[in-house]
Amino acid sequence: MSESSSAFSRVEFLISAGITGGLPPQDAPELAFAGRSNVGKSSAINALANRRRLAFVSKTPGRTQTINFFDLAGQGRLVDLPGYGYARVPQAVRAEWDQLVGGYLGTRSALAGIVVLMDARRPFTEHDEHLLEWLRPAGRRLLVLLSKCDKLSRNERDAALRGARARLGSRDPGAQALLFSSHSGEGVEAARTLLEGWLRAEREA
Questions:
Q1: Which long-range contacts (CB under 8 A, 24 or more apart) does 152-158 make?
Q2: How many whole angstroms from its chain centre is CA 143?
Q3: pLDDT tens digits for 44-69?
Q4: CB 140 within 8 A of CB 175
C-alpha cells in the first residue's frame, strides 16, 4: 500500500473523552490501544503514525486519564485508552478509569480491533490476563504487541514470541502477536499492515 493511501499517513488528534457520554459518533471503524501503564503504548502509537509526539510519552505512569481519539486519514480512528495496572493511582480514580474503559470496550460497535501492548520482558501480567479474559467473550480482533523487544537477545525474542502465540492460541485462535520496538522499528510495518487490513475489512463489511 502506498504511503499516500495509508490510513497512518495522516493521523490527527480528534477528541478526548473523560465520560462515555462524550465519545464521538460511531461513524468510522476504530482501533483501540490498551496496555499496562508505562509499557510503551504512546511510543508505539507514535511509531505507527511516524510521528514523534502524536501521543504524549510521559515518565509518570498513569498520566493519561481520558480516551483519546485520532483520525486516520478519514479511513478510521485510532483510540488511545488509559493505561492500567498502576498501583499508585488512587482507587477512586482507577474505578473511574475502569468504568470509562469498560464502557467503551463493552459497547462500542465501531470497534474494529484491539491492540494490547505488553512488555516483551514481562508479558501476561495479572492485569494483562484480566483484560484478555474480559475481552474474550466479545470476540474482537486482537493483536498483542510485545514491546521493547530490542532489549532482549535474539533467542529471548524468539522465545517470547513463541510463548505469547502459544498462550494466545490456547484461548483465542484468531489472536495474533508480534515483536515490536518503537526504538529499533522492529514490527512497526508488520503491525501497520495488519491494522490497515482490519480497517479495510470493517469498511467493506
A1: 152/120, 152/121, 157/120
A2: 8
A3: 999 999 887 675 444 444 445 788 99
A4: no
Here the cell at position 146 is 510485545
CA distance 73 to 36: 28
**HSE toward the beta carbon, residue 82, CA cutoff 13 A:** 26
**Per-residue pLDDT tens digits for 4-49:** 468 998 999 999 888 767 889 999 999 999 998 888 898 999 999 9
**What is the layout of strands, in order, in the sheet containing 67-72?**
11-17, 67-72, 77-80, 30-35, 111-119, 142-147, 176-179
In this structure, what DSSP letter does residue 82 have? P
User: DSSP string covering 18-37, please?
Assistant: SSGGGPPPS-S-EEEEEEBT
Q: State residue 1's pLDDT score.
A: 43
β-strands 67-72, 77-80 pairing:
antiparallel
Beta carbons of 180 and 147 less than 8 angstroms apart: yes
All structural domains of the chain, each given as residue ranges with its CATH number in brackets, are 3-204 (3.40.50.300)
